[in-house]
Amino acid sequence: MALLLVLPAGVRAEVRLLAFGDSLVQGYGLPQGEGFVPQLEARLRDGGHEVSVINAGVSGDTSAGGLSRIGWSLAEDVDAVIVVLGGNDLLRGLDPGDTRENIGGILEEIRARGLPVLLAGMQAPGNYGAAYKEAFDGLYPALAEANGARLFPSFMAPLMGDPEAPDLAAARALLQPDGVHPNAEGVARIVEAMLPQVEAMLAEVE
Fold first, then answer.
1. Active site residue 23
2. Which residue from 61, 117, 155, 163 lies 20 to 30 Å from 21 (Cα-Cα)?
3. Long-range contact pairs involving 131-138 (C-beta distance under 8 Å, separation at least 24)
4. For each successive 10 residues of the chain (206 residues), what is the average pLDDT?
5. Active-site residue, selected from the candidate residues 22, 23, 63, 89
6. CA–CA gap between residue 65 and residue 22 (Å, rounded)
7. Is 150 in contact with 118 (CB distance < 8 Å)?
8. pLDDT attached to residue 162
């Protein structure tokens, strides 16, 4: 006779949260334990969440690269997803329409599996021109609404302080020497700002 093993009442298996993105997720330039994934997992566990955050960040990845690998990344048997992509599209000056189509495809794949998702936005610098900035910045809220995703409007905004009066000098102190990637303290600011959204998402699966 087969034995059926079940968890005691009120106890569930550990939640698996997929952090899917580029070097900002991967932890580029940071010592082990100080990147986005380990810092987020530590904060969630400190808050009483039984969660494992899976690092699916690939340094240098574009939204097209993300679209090409989202299917097998979801084969990890995950419960929820954070998507952080678009930064490298910006660095290469890629067409915002292509970025929108690629991230849209990623969200559709996640939605098809019935998983809650948090989309982290990016913001284009002004030197690309007003039309480019409007198209790029606007793709994230539009995609989140169209796909029923939660939206964290700007991954890097927590480094800037007050959005009405951004402190550029303070922001630079939270970046690595390359001026692109956050240092450990910068990551901690991002995690702190994103935490309420992540916890709200986890409440759907815990």
1. yes
2. 163
3. 132/96, 135/96, 135/97, 136/86, 136/90, 136/96, 136/99
4. 44 85 98 97 97 97 98 93 98 97 98 97 94 97 98 95 70 93 97 98 92
5. 23
6. 9
7. yes
8. 67
Catalytic residue chosen out of the listed positions 46, 77, 162, 178:
178
User: Catalytic pick from 61, 63, 79, 181?
Assistant: 181
Structure tokens at 64: 């097209």
Residue 124 one-letter amino acid: A
Q: State the angle between helix axes of 36-46 and 184-202 in degrees (0 to 180), rounded to the nearest 10.
A: 50
Catalytic site includes residue 49: no
Domain 16-202 homologous superfamily, CATH: SGNH hydrolase (3.40.50.1110)
Question: For the chain, give me the number of helices (H) and strands (E)?
Answer: 8, 5
Burial 169-194 (b: 16+ CB within 10 A, else e): eebeebbeeeeebbbbebbbbbbeeb
| pLDDT value at residue 4 | 40
